[in-house]
Amino acid sequence: MKLKAVFNYCNSIILYNDGQKKEFFKGEQEYSTILAEWKNLLSDSLEMPAFGVSLDRLTREDMKTGTWIEFIYAKKWEYADLPFEKLLINADERFAGVNVIRYEKERGYSGRCFYIDLTNGKTLKIISDFIKNIWE
């Protein structure tokens, strides 16, 4: 299984906009729309070695501003020998690739990330705009 396929198994999606959050659950129209947009964005993407690690305290501080998308799972998953219960992405519209930050209850948002290169000139602008529009 590829990393982009893992997103299909989340139970809910949380969108963050400047510290405010809204959660959408599997079966809701918004959930389906968000997941479809995300899958479309990743359609030609390339999985790459991660560029960094996440530090829980700094990630939580960063989440207070900007747009973020978080995929929540009902059980612990593992990909590439790295466990997670949530996957978090900073949906900065300028980014053409993203660190996919793993969350585990025991460690928070600390540890190695995954990295996805969007390719073909794509950026996270579509997802960032979508998140901002939820609050309008």
Task: Give an account of the 3D structure.
The chain is of the alpha+beta class. The protein contains four helices and nine strands; from the N terminus they run αββαββαβββββα. The protein has helices spanning 3-6, 29-41, 56-62, 125-134; strands spanning 12-17, 20-25, 46-48, 53-54, 67-79, 82-90, 97-103, 111-112, 114-117. The strands form two sheets. Strands 2-1-5-6-7-9-3 form a seven-stranded antiparallel β-sheet. A two-stranded antiparallel sheet has the order 4-8. A hairpin with a 2-residue loop joins β5 and β6 (82-90). 25% of the residues are buried.
Blueprint of the fold:
Blueprint: H1 3-6, E1 12-17, E2 20-25, H2 29-41, E3 46-48, E4 53-54, H3 56-62, E5 67-79, E6 82-90, E7 97-103, E8 111-112, E9 114-117, H4 125-134
Supply database-style keywords:
single chain; 136 residues; 7-stranded antiparallel sheet; 4 helices; 9 strands
Number of helices: 4
Amino-to-carboxy terminus distance: 37 Å
Share of helix among residues? 25-40%
Oligomer: single chain
What is the general shape?
globular
Integer-rounded radius of gyration? 14 Å
Query: What is the string of helix and strand elements?
Result: HEEHEEHEEEEEH
**Percent of sequence in beta strands:** 35-45%
Low-pLDDT residue intervals, each spanning 5 or more residues: none
If strands are numbered along the chain, what order do they take across the biggest sheet? 2-1-5-6-7-9-3
How many beta strands in the DSSP annotation?
9
Instruction: Describe the main β-sheet briefly.
Output: 7 strands, antiparallel
Mean pLDDT: 93
| Secondary-structure content class | alpha+beta
